[in-house]
Amino acid sequence: MSELAIELKGIDKSFGLVHANRNINLKVRKGTIHGIIGENGAGKSTLMSILYGFYQADRGDIVIDGKTIKIRDPNAAIAAGIGMVHQHFMLVENFTVLENIMLGAEESQILNAGITKARAELKRLEKEYALEVDPDAVIEELPVGIQQRVEILKALYRKADILILDEPTGVLTPAEADHLFRILGQLKDEGKTVLLITHKLREIMAITDEVSVMRRGEMVATRTTKETSVEELAELMVGRRVLLRVEKGEAKPADVKLSVKNLTVRDSRGVTMVEDVSFDIRAGEIVGIAGVAGNGQSELLEAISGIRRATSGTVLLNGREIDVTGNADPADLRRRGLAHVPEDRHHVGLVLKFEESENAILGYHDDAKYRRGMLLDVDAIRADAEAKIAAYDIRPPNPRLKTANFSGGNQQKIVLAREMERNPDVLIIGQPTRGVDVGAIEFIHKRIIEMRDQGKAVLLVSVELDEIRALSDRILVMFAGRVVGERAPDATEGELGLLMAGVEGRKEAAE
Amino acid sequence: MSVPYAKLPGWAEYGLIPLVNLAVAFLISGLVVLIVGESPLEAAYHMVNGAFGRGEYIGFTLYYTTTFIFTGLAVAVAFHCGLFNIGGEGQAYIGGIGVVLACLAFDRTLPWYLVFPIAIVGAAFFGALWAMIPGWLQAKRGSHIVITTIMFNFIAASLMNYLLNRVFKPMGSMSLETRTFDAGGQLPKLDWLMSIFGLSVGSAPFNISFLLALLAAFGVWVLIWRTRLGYEMRTMGHSPAAARYAGIKEAKIIVIAMMISGGLAGMMALNPIMGEQFRMQLDFVQGAGFVGIAVALMGRSHPAGIIPAALLFGMLYQGGAEISFEMPSISRDMIVIIQGLVILFAGALEHMFRPAITRVILGLSPKTRDAAVTKGA
């Protein structure tokens, strides 16, 4: 028996000539929770994919439990006792819990015997790790937190001793995340080894024993969690000092700029996504909408910005009504002073195959200053893009580069520059820092505060509760399509978490 | 998880990779010739000689090229808007109506240079009309453009059959064609262009619509990359969600893009009707609409790629005819096999050699390598 559950020696991996992992050495002690942090593109996912057999390393050895082994595919990883819980669950939505857990481990052509065995084994695992799940529930009817539990059970059913979790809390409420951490703690006590991949420093500090930091394909440091700090880890990740707190002064709210009244949105199947939502946003304030992803925030943003048709309700922009239930035209709303940074920059906010300069005019391409007669004025467009690149420090500073070749943070800056530089009255921002590296987050937060201080009305939607609390002057919490409560930014995380989970909100509504 | 590839320099992306794909297609075609029991080298000789060996051959090659530029551009324009227009065949066929109406009405009264512009407008109008219906059905009803354009090819064939039989055929004639046009309906050959190079066009129907095709190619470039309409079409094509976000009217853009596409396909009819036959015959399009799909695919939907791709297919058509003439055991169907292989390697298997080529090229150039690394994975 070895002290180490996993030892990676000199792992190296390139795609074409993109060097994703360089000479990675990692030691994970048995029975510990080991965190791996790094910015997007640091190579964390590639490394875990190598460990789980999706990719083969070009060089280097993987030592599991003292034995050097080759992991050619996920089956080999499972045989070596490695289980993985993916960021996007790999579950068959219309199968039951039991069927999902058996999938790929049926053991014979006739299912009956396997089902009986699996049921018994599942009972045992549930007991042992306090992971209660109804084995006959259909996956699509379960909340995400429970679905994640099914993923963990799936790995345990395959006798995993090492569990890899890739960004596991992105889809969870704070309460669900706490529950997950308790489960992980229990797994640790049972002698399992957990590898936790995340970009959330707080989680690392809360539950890991040791933490390794990756930057640009290299493993730059490993620390004992107790002996390090959030500041040190952030600095290691980015390679320079980072300001984690947002500096902001008092808000000075003025006139109402955006007024939403009784807005209801149903999707094409008639399912209610947003229900009877009303709020006002004044010039010079940031209103944050907190909530677990999928509780109607996306549909709310889309309805206000004219992309999705609302079923009923009214929205006033600068006192004038927007035809949200009819033919609201995003181009017209832009002209009327509404700017929108969409949640999904890859598919909505940008056209990744376009040159940077082409994306810098998306939605504003009608503007006379980009036109010369019947043609587009390419020189003016590029000059405009260059000015924005300079103002927002977009790198590399090349307006002709394909947008897909910019990093997540720089892509987001392209969108922000486009929407903010228009000097709008109302700015709607969805997930401003999703998939954005720590260094750029600091910059983006500063800009949002600046917009507020210039007297813009800002509507902010984010699934990152920390971000909402740091930036907002007022917080609205959405649950199941409704606004279930309004809180000041100094509300505790627990209080907001209960609202996000729909617990407090129901009570409030009943009273 | 996608495997990222480093970006290649332009000459490799647009030059080397297509050439390698093409070379492999020809190599395998050679093997097929070998299996038939003939010499691939001899076939290659007849192919190249038949396409370029004499002024007259070149004239024929360029005549076919003209046709394929039009249909290739038609497919490309729709493709930039994310629409797969399979209906070039039918749109070109219907475009013939516009050409014929112009010629029958004015060939005896007006000179060709006045009839030609009328015929261009007519061809584009009828082609656009035929593409507008599937476009409208896609935009408003969600009927898939691939299905509707294929169906419209058949409708076009039946309609033209009827029109040639009952409307255009002169009284007492037995064959399904219009009357032969007088001088006003006949386009001049480009023998002066050939004679600059000391060549004679001979009997080849290489005519002025070739210049129109080049003009159309430039027009398409301007449209796609230099106009607001082109910008909106490209946005739609890459990401309908981004287009909606940008306030681009989806239905309008789809219909307009299809009409431009159909108009270009319709203009193809000028070449055979006014440039070669001086009358409209049954089935004069002869599959050029479908070849246009291959041309657009090979040419990466860029006019600068479509022109050489059209030339390649012109060569295959003309040189292929020559092979089957010189080597009787190789039938004309052989050309279809070669075309199929070209489409297979240039289209479907486009990425087969890419990783290897990327590794070799970027391995040789340290500057691009560092740029690729900083992008990360």
TrEMBL record, chain B:
Chief location category: membrane
Protein name: ABC transporter permease
Keywords: Cell membrane, Membrane, Transmembrane, Transmembrane helix
This protein's GO CC annotations: plasma membrane
Membrane topology: Multi-pass membrane protein
Organism domain of life: Bacteria
Matches recorded under PANTHER family: ABC TRANSPORTER, PERMEASE PROTEIN (PTHR47089), GUANOSINE ABC TRANSPORTER PERMEASE PROTEIN NUPP (PTHR47089:SF1)
Transmembrane stretches, start-end: 12-37, 57-79, 91-107, 113-133, 145-164, 196-224, 253-274, 280-299, 330-349
Pfam families, per database record: BPD_transp_2 (PF02653)
Record's keyword annotation contains Membrane: yes
Any one GO molecular function term: transmembrane transporter activity
Species assigned in the record: Shinella sumterensis
Compartment annotation: Cell membrane
Xref: InterPro entries: ABC_transp_permease
